[in-house]
Amino acid sequence: MRLIHTSDWHLGRTLHGESLLEYQRGFLCWLVELARDRRADAVLVAGDVYDRAVPPTDAVALLDDALAGLAAAGVPVVVTSGNHDSAIRLGFGSALQVAAGVHLRTKVADLDRPVLLRDDAGELAVYGIPYLLPDAVMAELGAQRSHESVLATAAERIRADAAGRGISRTVAVGHAFVTGGAASDSERDIRVGGIGDAPAGVFAGITYTALGHLHGAQQVAPGVRYSGSPLPFSFSERDQAKSVAVVDIDAGGAVGVELVRTPVARPLREVRGRLDELLAGAAGESSELRDCWVKVVLTDVSRPAAPMQRLRQVWPHTLLLEFRPEGVLPTASASVERAASTTDPVEMCSDFLEWVDATRPDKKQLDVITAALDAVARQELSA
Q1: CA 53, 57, 60 angle in degrees (round to 5)?
Q2: CA-CA to 98 of 20 to 30 Å: which in 11, 75, 319, 359?
Q3: CA-based R_g, the chain, Å
């Protein structure tokens, strides 16, 4: 059985204001060709199909084209919702799309409704696990208020269903933060709504677990893997090799994985130094950096005039400019930089309160902050 595991398309996302739609379209066309050329039995998309709950119309059209292309190639698709997706919007028309081989799994009720694939060795069951916000699903699942509890309960439901069907080869497709995974700057923190990560052991007994959420491709346990995003969404990902996983599962349930590099949009590069020195040396580096997305860290003691305009004359795709003056002691602006580098929303709110009155929030205040953020997260998922 051959499966292609991908995730975190984030259709509609931009990179520091630069539209990625053209590059996302290129990836999806490439994916359709790969599925056809490799004779894939199914494509698995582990959440964050869109970048936000209400996606732009061109992103919706792009997904429509991709699913139509896979349907025309005769390749079934299993899609789960991620924390960026609206489960309701992504799941719209799911009953109708089954006829085209598109299987959307966006609800708790979908957990024990597998997509059954067949080869010479018999049946293989693919189960979709939508993003499970503990506060939103723990009552329905009968679980505790933590990501570990809701995921463990979901996995147990999957194992029980597979056992009842007499199927030994099982695949779970889910969107979660599993302990041991290495995060990037571009992922939205999901720790609000209970303890934020879960051990890979919750998926014990499942042949292969296809995960989404973390943007770097990585294996976190035997048979438990993140495909990573197909494109970089932050400069922290500039050294990552973007790929999809081609997963082969034999008759006995042995798993083999091949990582296939995705098309490179533009390489990401970071340069550091004084503006005049960078511009003076640009002639030698111009051939390499002119076609790259560039982040520039300026170390000038005083801020130079029109730096972005001057940099884009030599490196047209300069997207991000930071100032880190050499030899200058940290000032109050350091707290702003700390806030900019924080992804945990509770921590961000705590930093803001500390900045306002120079005191960290106490437990009662933290409970109020967490409850408010939980309410926002629930509203986004139900939008």
Answers
A1: 70
A2: 11
A3: 23
* Structure confidence at residue 382 (pLDDT): 64
Residues 297-345 have pLDDT tens digits of 999 988 899 999 999 999 999 999 999 998 765 555 555 555 555 567 8
User: What does the chain come to in residues?
Assistant: 383
Q: What angle do CA 64, 44, 132 make, to 5 degrees?
A: 95
In 179-215, which positions are buried (b, 16+ CB within 10 angstroms) versus exposed (e)? Answer: eebeebebbebbbbbbebbbbbebbeebbbbbbbbbb
Task: Pick the closest to residue 205 from 156, 250, 154 (CA basis).
Answer: 156
How far apart CA 248 and CA 1 sit, in angstroms, is 6
Cα–Cα distance for residue pair 175/5, rounded to 1 Å: 12
What's the distance, CA 241 to chain centroid? 15
- Name residue, tokens 């770097």: 216
- How many angstroms separate the Cα of 268 from the Cα of each of 115, 185, 235, 236, 293? 38, 14, 7, 9, 5
Residues 5 and 40: beta-carbon distance below 8 Å: no
- Taking residues 30-50, report their average pLDDT: 97
Tokens 């439901």 sit on residue: 157
Contact 19, 54 (CB under 8 A): no
Model pTM score? 0.82
User: d(Cα 294, Cα 14) in Å, to the nearest integer?
Assistant: 15
